[in-house]
Amino acid sequence: MMCRDVVDATTDDLEGALKGWKRVSYRFHLTICPYCRAHHKQMKSTIATLGALPREEPTSESRERALEAFRKRNSKNV
Amino acid sequence: MTAKVPDDDLVRRLRAGDEAAFTEAFDANHASLVRIARLFTKNESAAEEIAQDTWVAVMNALDSFEGRSSFKTWIVRICVNRAKTRAARDGRQVPVAGLGDDDPPSSSESRFGAFGTFKARPADFQATPETLFAEREVRAAIERFIAELPDAQRAVVTLRDVEGLSSEEVCNALDLSESNQRVLLHRARTRLRDALEELHSTRTT
Q1: Can you tell me the distance from the alpha carbon of B128 to that of A60, in angstroms, rounded to the nearest whole number?
Q2: Is B72 inside any structural domain?
Q3: What is the DSSP letter of B38?
Q4: Which CATH number do you get for residue B39?
Q5: Phi and psi dihedrals of B118, rounded to 5?
Q6: B38 and B47 in contact (C-beta within 8 Å)?
Q7: Residues 130-189, chain B: which have Cβ within 8 Å of A?
Q8: B55 and A74: CB-CB below 8 Å?
Q9: What pTM did the predictor assign?
Q10: Are residues B59 and B117 in the same domain?
Q11: How many structural domains are present in chain B?
């Protein structure tokens, strides 16, 4: 495996889809190549960044409509 | 995904009519529903409506929640179904019917030398996401990078990485095979990595 192949296989690795010999050579390459380790870290940071995106504030109209549905349900269930 | 037990508790409180539980569930999930609905429509108010309709459906179906998935997974599934139904009704195509876009992974070939080895060490992304998002422009830039992805890539990366669904859930929501899902996810992550590297390099220089 060359760096380019390792880069191409990053998502397969992170998703647990690398099996057998491919996984072994991927892991081996990472242990010997600081460049690919740096790339691997970048990909993980990318994923962490996406997962940490701040949420938008809900509109008050949406909140009211949902709350109304919630209250309606409860009044039926009493 | 969130652990099962707190969700059971949340649903129990919702069923009992506890409005604090409603607020908790709404605040934790509404933005996700809107984001997901946007994958199926370009119309902003339609996306908001799909999210609202999802809450109405969720409230009406509360008694049928069996706790076999997390609460979020459950409502996301309802949201996706509503968004698809609506897209079909409006005669629009759902973003992912297959591999959609056929663009090659963008990971700049220029990063590699003749033998497929890195020419230079990839830079460290210094800032943690939290400090990164403290700047409004940075947040807007990242949202824009996502928005500019081809539809299928955007759908997969939004569900998997932004919203944290499992790959199985993503496949079900978008009718994709596991391997196609991974291809799209990889292309999207690769493009976003490129964009983030660019962003980090302009911030540190």
Answers
A1: 31
A2: yes
A3: T
A4: 1.10.1740.10
A5: -60, 135
A6: yes
A7: 130, 132-133, 139, 142-143, 146, 157, 161-162, 164, 167, 178-179, 182, 185-186, 189
A8: no
A9: 0.88
A10: no
A11: 2
Residue A58 is assigned to a structural domain of this protein: no
d(CA B119, CA B139): 30
A interface test, pick of B12, B23, B27, B59 with most A CB neighbours within 10 Å = B59
Identify whether residues B64 and B134 lie together within a single domain. no
pLDDT digits (tens, 9 = 90+) for B18-31: 999 999 999 999 99
Q: How far apart are CA B147 and CA B143, in angstroms?
A: 6
A52/B164 CB distance under 8 A: no
Range of the domain at A30: 1-53
In a domain, A4, yes or no: yes
Whether residue A70 lies inside any domain: the answer is no
Helix, strand, coil distribution of chain A in percent, nearest 5: 75, 0, 25
B 95-134 → A contacts, CB under 8 A = 105, 107, 111-112, 115-118, 120-125, 129-130, 132-133
Domains in chain A, number: 1
* pLDDT, tens digit (0-9, with 9 covering 90-100), for B98-133: 555 556 555 667 888 888 899 889 988 877 888 888
Interface of B with A in 19-78 (CB under 8 A): 19, 22, 26-27, 30-32, 34-35, 48, 51-52, 55-56, 59-60, 62
For B162, the closest of A38, A51, A62 (CB atoms) is A51
| Domain that includes residue B133, residue range | 109-204
In a domain, A34, yes or no: yes
Residue B177 located in a structural domain: yes
Contact B156, B188 (CB under 8 A): yes
- Model-level ipTM above the cut of 0.95: no
